[in-house]
Specification:
Elements: E1 7-12, H1 20-33, E2 37-41, H2 46-49, E3 59-61, E4 89-92, E5 98-101, H3 104-113, E6 118-123, H4 125-136, E7 141-145, H5 161-182, E8 185-190, H6 197-205, E9 210-212, H7 220-232, E10 238-243, E11 255-257, E12 265-266, H8 269-281, E13 285-289, H9 301-320, E14 325-330, E15 333-338, H10 339-342, H11 354-361
Parallel strand pairs: 1-2, 1-6, 6-7, 7-14, 8-10, 8-13, 9-10
Antiparallel strand pairs: 2-3, 4-5, 11-12, 14-15
Bound molecules: 6-O-phosphono-beta-D-fructofuranose (F6P).
6-O-phosphono-beta-D-fructofuranose (F6P) binds at residues 15, 82, 124, 147-149, 191-193, 244, 265-266, 295.
Length: 368
């Protein structure tokens, strides 16, 4: 059923992912075709929460011209942030301590002030949680799932993941020749937060010898044994892919730090694994941390198409009056699922999935 929509707002939140611009273009063109106006909020919701910081008042009028030629570009023309969530806004208390404060009512008011009849919120778990709060407070919201980590439930895949995995696999490919030339163990640390999707897919596609993922706490001795067995078979080098959220059976995740109003930052496990493998195997070891390289650059064709499909599906959802939902890939279609179920759980790698079984049958060690 069609709603009285004249103007929609678009926001991109959380860490950027290749494909964001493709979603924006698709939303804008699909909306303009229906005669709707499109406003882009800068830097998540900062354009609304702190408009004075911006020369244009924090809101971009999105026209056909503003979204021309952006489908293949990484990043987001709107900007994004993973700090200062409106539902956990860092605020300095009278006692000099920082607290997280819920400013969602203020955001609802500001969205109403700009006359947005509906909001397309493009983001990962954090941004979709905000979207769900806004929806509960009466804003007509449609979410679009974005993250290189692929850890969002209810959608088979998120855009950004394929680009991250393709690049990671290419890096693993490149490391094979140098590892073999020097008889070294190369440890590659990849992003993915608390899910092992990127590590698993890059490791399988790049034929790694071991893949360490958050879903399976690893025993470093088992990984070392894999390296030794390989050497006995005449393959005196090895490639180990480690997810940033991986942890040993007898230890914790490697955390860089946690700042108020932000999620904890992971990192450092690659160096830890490399150091231990050098000690246990006596082999020369090097670490490569791919980090933000996985989020940069142009989206793959797969991610562009997915992002474009998600964008136009989000506009169709608005036109049909379906709110409080997220567009989700359920091949061969894109369907709408409740935002509340999309954020209810994190999608980690199922240990009985056929990709896991394939990896094990290929002889990849998970350190268990
Ligand atoms: O969620 C995407 C992601 O790239 C994670 O894989 C990673 O842990 C995190 O964001 C890094 O965030 P930041 O850009 O704040 O360093």
């Amino acid at each position: 059923m069609s709603q009285a929509i004249r103007r929609i707002a678009i926001s991109t939140g959380g860490g950027d992912a290749p494909g964001l611009n493709a979603v924006i273009r698709s939303v804008v063109l699909s909306a303009l075709q229906r005669g709707w106006e499109c406003l882009g909020i800068r830097d998540g919701y900062n354009g609304l929460m702190t408009p004075d910081v911006y020369a244009d008042g924090g809101i971009m009028n999105l026209t056909r011209e503003s979204v021309r030629g952006i489908t293949h570009l990484g990043g987001t023309i709107l900007g994004t942030t993973n700090r200062g969530s409106p539902i956990a806004y860092p605020t300095l208390g009278d006692d000099g301590q920082w607290y997280e404060r819920d400013r969602s009512d203020e955001l609802v008011e500001k969205l109403n002030t700009i006359g947005a009849d509906a909001l397309v919120a493009i983001g990962g778990d954090g941004s979709l949680e905000i979207a769900n709060v806004l929806s509960q407070k009466g804003i007509r919201v449609v979410g679009v799932p974005k993250t290189i980590d692929n850890d969002l439930a209810e959608t088979v895949v998120t855009f950004g993941f394929d680009t991250a995995v393709s690049f990671a696999a290419e890096c693993v490919d490149r490391l094979h020749s140098t590892a073999e030339a020097h008889d070294r163990v190369m440890v590659v640390e990849v992003m993915g937060r608390y899910a092992g999707w990127i590590a698993l897919y890059a490791g399988v596609a790049g034929t790694a010898d071991a893949v360490l993922i958050p879903e399976i706490p690893y025993d470093i001795e088992k990984v070392a044994e894999r390296v030794r067995v390989r050497a006995e078979r005449g393959r005196d080098f090895a490639i180990i892919v480690v997810a940033e959220g991986a942890r040993p059976v007898d230890g914790d995740r490697s955390i860089v730090g946690k700042t108020i109003g932000q999620q904890e930052r992971l990192g450092g496990i690659g160096h830890q694994v490399a150091g231990q493998l050098a000690d246990l195997t006596g082999k020369e070891t090097r670490t490569v941390v791919l980090g933000h390289l996985l989020r940069g650059g142009s989206p793959t064709t797969h991610d562009r198409i997915l992002a474009l499909r998600f964008g136009s599906a989000a506009v169709r959802a608005i036109a049909e009056g379906c709110f409080g939902c997220m567009v989700a890939l359920d091949p061969p279609t894109v369907r709408y699922v409740p935002l509340s179920s999309a954020i209810a759980r994190m999608k980690t790698v199922p240990l009985d999935s056929d990709t896991m079984l394939t990896a094990r049958e290929l002889g990849i060690s998970f350190g268990d």
